[in-house]
Amino acid sequence: MTQTTLSYPGNREPVAFTQEELGWLPWLEPYPADQLTERHWAGLVDASRAKSPYFMLLARDPDILQARTKTDKDIFYNTSNGLPRAEREIAATAASRYNGCIFCASVHSRFASQYSKRKDDVQRLLDQGTDTDIDPRWNAIIAASVALTATPVAFGDAEIEALRAAGLDDLEIVDVINGAAFFNWANRLMLSLGEPTPPTKLA
Amino acid sequence: MSAAPPDVIDLLAGIEPASPLYDIRNQRAQARENAQKSYLALFEPEVPGDLTTVERFAVANFVAGLHRQPAVAEFYAAGLHRLAERRISDAIVTEISRGSTRGPYGRYPDGPLSVEDVAGPGYQVAPENQQVLGRKLIAALEHAHLLVFHPRDASPAALQTLLNAGWSTTGIVTLSQLISFLAFQIRVVAGLRTLSSASEAPVDVPRTAVFTGVLASGRV
Q: Chain A contact for B164, CB < 8 A?
């Protein structure tokens, strides 16, 4: 079988960061839906993800997909203690903004706005970039996420001190580390395996 | 089979059982367990998949070396050293120093973000290492450099280069996961190491607990 990439000459890729709902098109053929085995369904974790071309492409290696998805869910959804969800989403958005993943930033800025009720502040992070000045606590979370996203990593004692000065305890700091680090995984997959499509309402 | 392997993140971050950070990591037990399962799925897979173990560790050695985190770089270098001929390990060492730079850089789609485009170096495996690495590993290292330092420059053409070098579609998915997982694992290790060394004098928690609630409400 000849394997080639997929292309979408008609797609108008979004050219700015947005909180609107974007789509995503894969550059490689997703796993065929009619060939999903039990192992693939386990990899998808939620059956609803079989509708997503992104997860269906990743389902080609179901074991790593399953472990990745479960890592993701605990880092972001386990809010029985630690950092509030909104601020985990700020870490994810900051990493995505700095790496330049317009799709990831759209999803997680929307979550940040939903949980913080601070849509305008979130939009400033998207419009002005990670150097924007929001408030001491968000500034510290954004700066720490950016330092951790740089290659080589630039995260050091100064970032820890700023997070502590902003009131974060060590569990909350670990939530920032996990959230920003995880998006260095997600951004690279999203950016390198496909392309975003314009907001649904404009499509 | 040997006993269950140690938790790689704890190992590389120097986190001892019953230490404060060990206990904190346990509060995200699913994340901890599945970060380890991710490592195992990529480096000790139950189903062999489309990458050889040597390919997995060669790419990991390269990616970890580019991040310049000594503990992680040594771990994957030792893995490759166990599995592969010396000349492959040696080739990776020279490719790490040839490929080292700073990221993220890259271009945005033409538009308002173009003012944020940052130029950076391309990377190609040295001619003298091409024979020892072979065309699949050459393509994998060149793709890894793109993903590590300038992922926003990714393109279908970059994937076509992998296909042309003999990678399957499924193999590219596994390769992409491996490189991207390492970008995560290396950052967790770096973050936890920094926090661990800064944890000698933690701030007073009761004071911050109240304050945190106020700040999180967004009323500041």
A: no
- Across the interface, which of A78, A169, A182 has its CB nearest the CB of B184? A182
What is the Rg, in whole angstroms, of the alpha carbon atoms belonging to chain A?
Answer: 18
> Thinking of the domain A84-185, which architecture would CATH place it in?
Up-down Bundle (1.20)
Residue B171 lies in a domain: yes
Range of the domain at B121: 8-107+114-216
- The pTM score is 0.94
Cis upstream peptide for A152 (omega within 30°)? yes
Chain A residues touching B154 at Cβ < 8 A: 191-193
Delimit the CATH 1.20.1290.10 region(s) of chain A: 84-185
Tell if the CB–CB gap between A185 and B212 is shorter than 8 Å: no
- Closest chain B residue to A75 measured between Cα atoms? B31
A68 touches chain B (CB under 8 A): yes
Residue A121's closest CA among A146, A98, A141?
A141
pLDDT tens across A128-184, in order?
999 999 999 999 999 999 999 999 999 999 999 999 999 999 999 999 999 999 999
CATH number, residue B144: 1.20.1290.10
**Rounded Cα gap, residues A54 and A172, in angstroms:** 30
Give residue A2's pLDDT.
52
